[in-house]
Every structure is written in C-alpha cells, then in structure tokens.
Amino acid sequence: MRHAIHTEPADHPLVRLDARVKLLTALALIVMVISCAGSGFPLLVAALCLGLCVAMGVPPRRILIRFAEPLFIAAMVLLLKLFFSGHEPLFTMHLFGLELVGHRDGLREGVMIASRIAGAVSVVAAVGFATPFTELMAALAWLRVPQGLIEVALFAWRYLFVLFDDAQVVYAAQRNRLGYAGFRRGLRSFGTLAGALVIKAFDNSQTVTTAMVQRGYDGTMPLLRHRPFRKGEVLLSAAFVAMMGVLWRM
C-alpha cells in the first residue's frame, strides 16, 4: 500500500522550522496580501513563495498541479472583470458575432483580485510543501481550531490514500477487461468505479469506528506534543514579517 505521508524535503531549513511559527507567519502574510491596496505586493509574495518551493526541491509538476485550479479561477475573474465590469473602454473585439469591450478600470480590478489569489495560494502551498500534515494539524489544534474539524481532516487524509489505492485496483481491472474501450462503456465503467468507492468508503468507516471503539477511543485524538518555542525561530519570523510589513505599506 502506498501512502504519501511525508514527502517534504527534510534537509531544508524551512521544513525544520516549528509548524506553529510557519503557520503564524503564513497567516500574517495572507492578511497582508488580502488587505493590500495594489497588486505589486501580492505578486512579490507569490514570487517569493514559488522561489521557496523551488529551493525546497519540489518537482515542477507538483507545483503546476497545486496551482492549476487557483490560477484558472484567477484567470476567469480577470476576464470577467475585464469584459463585464468598468466604465473606461480599453479595446473592442468581436467573438462569434458578439462585440466584447475591454475596460481599463475592470482590468485593474481583475489584476488586483487575481494577484491576491495568487499570493494567498502561494503562501498556503509553500507551507503545505514545507510542513508534514500531522504537524500542521497539531499547529491548528494549538491555535484552538475546533477539535472535531481536525479529527475529520486527519481521518480524511489517512483514508484518502486507501481509497486511491482501491480506485487504482478497480480501474486496472476495468481496463484489462476493455471497460474503457468506448465513450459510452467508459462512462458506465466510471460510474461503477465511483459506486464501488462509495460502498468501500462506507464499509471502511464502519470497520474503523468499531476498531477504534474497541481500543478505547473516547472522541478525542492525541496529537503531537509541541516543543517549546525557540527564540531564534521566533525572532527570525518576526523580522521577516516586519520586513514584509514595510513592503506592504510602501
């Protein structure tokens, strides 16, 4: 069985940093990105976080997959603001018999929103690549995030890989039996695969619940114990946030 439990580059200094410090720094950056009046600072944060991901040795394919959906949303927001918002005409184009007018003020608003999306997503991606999931959940628990939410996230993360392995087995069996030979047959096979995964997830939930109750599960899940804060890490994080705050006010 394959589990992607720890795929972070353990020899990078950012990975060895306390997860609570990384989380607090990320929250401060996200607040500054969202509240920034221009688009320069969010783009700077996005470039910095992408540089950190590359420096940690994250494969470009993983970075593209992580950013594909947010960048698509940012592009859609930019296009909607450009053509359907604003009052200052910038250019006119004809597409399929329709006349579309691009607006200068709409473009400015779209770029600002898209840059905020890119900056915030880059911060989250950098923290995600640099922090094991269990340590991130422990840091969220330290921030007093509801315990039920953390437990659900831990269970979902644990059994997501189990369901993925089951899906690979069923998909391989369907392909060996020409289950995807045609479009209609492929849709039928995909429906069968989805139904099998739903039933498998339900069966696993009942099995896991029974097993945990028999082992004394009382509704609370033990998490990692945090070591005391290191002054060097705290001071370095505070200096970085202060420097970014100066850039944010410029």
Separation, N- and C-terminal Cα atoms: 51 Å
Number of helices: 9
Global outline: flat
Fraction in helix: over 70%
Total strands = 2
Order of helices and strands: HHHHEEHHHHH
- Low-confidence stretches are 1-6
Main β-sheet description: 2 strands, antiparallel
For the largest beta sheet, what order do the strands appear in spatially?
Answer: 1-2
**Number of separate structural domains:** 2
> How large a portion of the residues is in β-strands, by DSSP E?
5-15%
Q: Kindly report the average pLDDT value.
A: 85
Helical/strand content category = mainly alpha
Rounded to an integer, what's the Rg over CA atoms?
Answer: 23 Å
Architecture blueprint of SSEs:
Elements: H1 13-16, H2 19-35, H3 40-55, H4 60-84, E1 89-95, E2 98-103, H5 104-130, H6 133-142, H7 147-176, H8 183-214, H9 231-249
Antiparallel strand pairs: 1-2
3D structure, described in words:
This protein has 2 domains: 13-131 and 225-250, no CATH class; 146-219. The chain is 72% helix and 5% strand. It contains 9 helices and 2 strands; from the N terminus they run ααααββααααα. Strands 1-2 form a two-stranded antiparallel sheet. A hairpin with a 2-residue loop joins strand 1 (89-95) and strand 2 (98-103). Helix 2 runs antiparallel to helix 5. The model is unreliable at 1-6 (pLDDT under 50).
